Amino acid sequence: MEYQLSTELRQKVADRVTGFPVQNQPDEGLKHAAVALVMVATEDGEGAIVLTRRSSKLRSHKGQWALPGGRIDTGETPVTAVLREMHEEIDLHLPQENVLGVLDDYQTRSGYLITPVVVWAGLDASMRANPDEVASIHLVSFTELNRPDSPVFLDIPESDRPVIRLLVEENFVHAPTAAVMYQFREVCLHGRHTRVDHFEQPVFAWK
Description:
alpha+beta; Nucleoside Triphosphate Pyrophosphohydrolase
């Protein structure tokens, strides 16, 4: 299988993400957050990334699809914040050497600047959802991430930027999560230097 999780795939992704000319943005006036693109294996050994459904108990964006992550605390870097958030949200403990690199910052309509961090969890990753933050944990295989009918781009009257959304099984995943996942697909799996900061979010995510 082309996307079988292996040390060779890890090295290929590491080379691509470290060779990618990342575009950082100033976080002045924004809440800086980080999200993890966690590379794990499905039951048949194919590579996948971890996607969560946010708990209905949360104050904002409850029930939405999200990557593990959250606000960067004072004194933290995006990498240390992501490792802490993975521990808190999905009970996944990984050392800093498992971090392969970062992708472009993405500014949200709700006032966040998100830094995506690519993390290798390997074949035997063990996860458990923290029910206060995460309703469920899902694996999006690299085959699913590359399905030919996804992403979908929409025009909306509220913006001149195209809205991006990804199909995951029968679900739509919207930006910012969809934009970050799409850049992971393009850069890490295909080696294409694709930007996503011009992609819009649906209006319900602007708050």
